[in-house]
Design a protein that fits this description.
Helix content: 25-40%
Mean pLDDT: 78
Structural class: alpha+beta
CATH architecture of the largest domain: Up-down Bundle
Strand order of the largest sheet: 1-2-3-4
CATH class of the largest domain: Mainly Alpha
């Protein structure tokens, strides 16, 4: 191969391989998990995610058009089964739990979301907008890609007996059921043994390494 056939170094450095089909599948699953509360988020995180989702849905932002009240009745509903009891589209962007429990009025939510939208650079296309949304979701430590199981424990004095066990590619985490608060987590290299025992169902043993000693 001579120099004419070699790929430019800048091209190789900046090239990316993105499976847009997978990104779109992950996006719809993530939006569902966010707005249904499967992935618990704070009000600040909800506003940030809603602003990113805005571009994946509407693509462009117009300060004159997109004013509080924009998220009113719409014929297009992403998850109609969830929002039959409500008359506005805001629940497609913000977790229903937050809307019900927050002291904010609908107009306040819309104002904060649109203010956040105004600070963002519009994506080149919808898929790019969904990728930006997913990057933020991937940063939500302890949620994306986790499969949850209900369990009971009696080894950790600082945890309630009933817990959630979360398993993903990084290892195993224990969550408090209320609010899905991560109580403790164990990387795969810390899990010494796991398996099944009669009357126990599932168990695991961990080794915590300190100063190269187990």
């Amino acid at each position: 191969m001579d120099g004419r056939d070699a790929l430019p170094s800048d091209y190789v450095k900046n090239a990316r391989v993105v499976d847009w089909v997978q990104i779109n599948l992950q996006y719809y699953q993530a939006v569902y998990n966010i707005i249904t509360g499967a992935y618990p988020v704070t009000e600040e995180q909800a506003v940030e995610l809603a602003a990113l989702q805005f571009f994946s849905v509407f693509m462009s932002y117009d300060a004159d058009k997109h004013q509080p009240g924009f998220f009113g009745n719409r014929s297009l509903l992403l998850f109609s089964s969830i929002i039959q009891s409500l008359d506005h589209r805001l629940v497609e962007f913000v977790p229903l739990r937050l809307l019900k429990n927050s002291s904010k009025r609908r107009e306040q939510w819309e104002t904060e979301i649109l203010d956040a939208v105004a600070t963002l650079t519009p994506p080149e296309h919808k898929d790019a907008g969904r990728l930006a949304y997913m990057r933020r979701v991937w940063d939500l430590e302890g949620w994306f890609g986790v499969t949850f199981f209900r369990g009971a424990q009696n080894q950790f004095a600082n945890l309630p007996e009933d817990i959630l066990i979360g398993v993903n590619e990084y290892g195993l985490s224990l969550y408090e059921i209320q609010g899905k608060v991560v109580a403790t987590r164990f990387h795969l290299v810390e899990i010494f043994r796991w398996g099944y025992r009669p009357n126990t169902s599932f168990y695991f043993e961990v080794k915590v390494f300190k100063n190269n000693r187990s």
